Amino acid sequence: MSEECTSEPAGAIRAIDEHSVHQICSGQVVLTLATAVKELVENSVDAGATNIEVRLKDSGAELVEVSDNGKGVEEANFEGLTLKHHTSKIRDFSDLIHVETFGFRGEALSSLCALSELMVVTCHESSQVGTKLVFDHKGNLVQKLPHPRQQGTTVSLQQLFYTLPVRHKEFQRNIKKEYAKMIHVLQSYCIISTGVRITCTNQTGQGKRNTILSTSGSQSMRDNIGAIFGPKQLQTLLPFQQVLPGDSVMDEYGLKDTDLPKQLFVITGFVSRAEHGVGRSATDRQFFLSTTVHAILLR
Fold first, then answer.
1. Model-level pTM?
2. Average pLDDT per block of 10 residues along the chain, 299 residues long
3. Which Gene3D superfamilies match (predicted)?
4. What range defines the domain where residue 26 resides?
5. DSSP line for the chain
């Protein structure tokens, strides 16, 4: 009895079309709802906003919208706002070492264009009237209309991930987990963004819009912690006190003053008191920000 070969010869290797490449690569930049919100909030902070509103519909499955009162976008930058490899942050590779902002505005918006229906309403500080901008999935500007708005920018994402059917189905199925992760990420920005009022609301169906979290724009990180986790949490906090080693420690390790590095690092932040009933069994309230080094350990 002869055995028939059923395998087909491999097809010719061909280049993937540019549109599909952009979708696939963008899916590796914006992986989750949390990533999308993070990128938009960072853009608002980089734009000098003191008031940022995150509005969700159906926990972000239907709509994600981030609005701010930052500097806005100049008309000269409308065309390049969402194009790949377009940014105001660097001009060549060597500029990377000098970047002190959160990220590359154009790269994030380019990826979000490929994964959703993206619309921007912006009014630059030098403009008298705002502008509504609509982009296609390649980041090309397809519509520009006058639109009333005070200074700042609003970015709206409808149907996140719908251009990737398998990813979109998974996103819809796991929306509660995606939403919970997004809230945790947003909490970290609320805590560390002193002088910035951040509000997040969610609307389910045609129901009422509910406030999920908000800060008051205080200059104090401690106040921000209280706004997010409640005044009871503030009662358990102790600030970090960074001190140089004393004489006894110096003697124990045979060190001299000249052996100690000067300002090797600076760490500030808060930790919960080590008392019975104060701690937490989970690590969901531990936050670290690496600038100097900020640490928030609520446990």
1. 0.79
2. 52 67 59 93 92 97 96 89 59 47 64 92 93 92 94 96 92 96 95 95 93 94 92 86 81 79 76 79 80 58
3. 3.30.230.10, Histidine kinase-like ATPase, C-terminal domain (3.30.565.10)
4. 18-224
5. -PPPP-PPPPPPP-PPPHHHHHHHHHHHH--SHHHHHHHHHHHHHHTT-SEEEEEEEGGGTSEEEEEE-S----GGGTTTTTSTT--SS-SSGGGGGG--SS--HHHHHHHHHHHSEEEEEEE-TT-SSEEEEEE-TTS-EEEEEEE---SEEEEEEESTTTTSHHHHHHHHHTHHHHHHHHHHHHHHHHHH-TT-EEEEEEE-TTS-EEEEEE----S-HHHHHHHHH-HHHHTTEEE-------HHHHHHTT--GGGSPSSS---EEEEE---TTT--SS-TTEEEETTTTEEEE--
